[in-house]
Amino acid sequence: MSNGKDANAAENSSQMTLKECLDECMEALDLFLNNHFKESLDMLRPRVKESMYHALIYATVLEMQAMMTFQPDDISNAGQTMKSAQEVCHKFRRKSSGLLSKSGGDSLTEVQLHAEVCYAECQLQRAALTFLQDENMVSFIKGGIKVRNSYLIYKELHSLIHSPGSLKGASHVHLEGGISFGIGAFNLTLSLFPPRILKVLEFAGFSGDKDYGLSLLGDGATGMNLRSMLCALLLLCYYTFLTFILGTGEGEVTEAERLLKPFRLRYPRGAIFLFFAGRTEEIKGNIDEAVALFEDGCKAQQAWKQFHHMCYWELMWCFTYKRLWKMAYFYADLLSKESLWSKAMYVYMKAAYLSMLQEDEARPFGEDEVELFRQVPTFKQKIAGKSPPTEKFAIRKARRYKARCPIRLPVPVLEMMYMWNGFSMISKRPELTEGMMQTLVEAERTLLEAPGNEHSVDDRCVIHLLKGLCLKNQGLLQAAEESFGKVLSSEKKIRFDHYLVPNCLVELALLYVDQGRRDEAIQLLHKAKHNYKEYSMESRTQFRVHATLAKLKADPEEEEDTRM
């Protein structure tokens, strides 16, 4: 009998330790969300070698920093810390293989169950870091990260906790939250990827169920557990960024605002939530309100200057939408001096803003756009052996300024704005769309008055594409279709900007979707998907094609329900 008592005592002690660890990690997260970043890490650091939750949350905070900064050193450091955290979690796992016991008497303890979910989360977050380094995720495999193992652990845990007689310990709410986060994140993230990329990732036959993922993450975000904040942040990223950059550009403002509300009340000066509140206002077209929130986000904390860079990036675009080129230039200049994410992109944007000014207008700091454009390729960087796609695009566009008498780009700011789906942002503000249309009409007039050159057709097609987007925003759908048609009819004459035709097909397809012309839209999307390769920003365009086909439930490769 005494042996049984001793075993129970050890188990109770283990549970108590687990609860204490979770309570302290919740406190550390609370500090983090209140902008006390250093204090949060100081609280976690002493126990990162002995507590799986301290190790995981410490590495998670560093990963969030890396995601804010995009700096290679931060990404590398976060990756190493997450790898160490995974090793700590492994110590607490059951040594025999498999979670589901074949004999009833050999069930997992509560600590072992938590070790499994923490181990799987480490793998998942290491995968997310790899995605940060390479937009098309091929480096998942290069980095040797066994994402599939993480998926299988989550799947098995999900079955286990929903099986009859499963153990529900004192910290079950945190275990359940961890499983919801993992399965929700997998389903949502994988639903974004075209099947061909999933095949490369060895996920053949598995595609995420977006609605199921959103539902699990939504439940996780509103619960009181350690992963609530992670669920909320992933959803906010999805609703306010991914749907624009990799999707159809609609966003989910109502959902984002609903999610933000309790966090804004609890952390009124929390820089992270001020940032997402700003992004939400930006999507609604409330540019002045967005500017105020991004500025507040910068004032709220000074410990992580890199967080300011996210706000500067959004402020740059806010002033772009208002055509305040010098204000936008100011933020591009700040980024070029302070941020290491993509100096080539920032210098390109500085040059682009200066090129939008009148020729006789004074340039800030006496800088010259031609000289800046020529500098762009010198700042090329490689993350995980590859240059970011947007940086490659900027370098390619800046090439024409190498010539002694360069042919200027007609509307470089508006072209880059398109790459970040900025025309969707101004769709609810007619005066902003009208302003962009004026800029395009003036640029078109200048092009027509100038003598022809090797870039003339490409430049005219850029303007036709962007005018089509403005006309669509204005509800002039027939005129928008004609504008897109001018690009498509010039396909054989385009010499440099080969991204124009596949992107134009996507935009025309989205126009058809709005008009209820589903079959015609699907035909254009399949053409964009299969007929064009190796053009600028291809992976981003393919993500948008996939998102639109999925929305139309049109792609036979995705019909099968394979949710976890």
Q: How are the SSEs ordered, and which strands pair?
A:
Blueprint: H1 2-33, H2 37-44, H3 52-69, H4 72-91, H5 110-133, H6 139-142, H7 147-161, H8 172-191, H9 195-200, H10 210-222, H11 228-245, H12 253-266, H13 271-284, H14 287-300, H15 305-321, H16 325-338, H17 343-355, H18 369-375, H19 389-398, H20 412-419, H21 422-425, H22 430-449, H23 456-473, H24 477-489, H25 500-514, H26 518-530, H27 538-551
Helix pairs in contact: 1-2, 1-3, 3-4, 3-5, 4-5, 5-7, 5-8, 7-8, 8-10, 8-11, 10-11, 11-12, 12-13, 13-14, 13-15, 14-15, 15-16, 16-17, 17-18, 22-23, 23-24, 23-25, 24-25, 25-26, 25-27, 26-27
Notes on the structure:
The two termini are 43 Å apart. The radius of gyration is 25 Å and the shape is globular. The chain is built from 27 helices and no strands. The chain has helices at residues 2-33, 37-44, 52-69, 72-91, 110-133, 139-142, 147-161, 172-191, 195-200, 210-222, 228-245, 253-266, 271-284, 287-300, 305-321, 325-338, 343-355, 369-375, 389-398, 412-419, 422-425, 430-449, 456-473, 477-489, 500-514, 518-530, 538-551. With 564 residues, the chain is mainly alpha-helical.
Biggest beta sheet summary? none
Beta content comes to under 5%
Average pLDDT works out at 87
- The assigned structural class equals mainly alpha
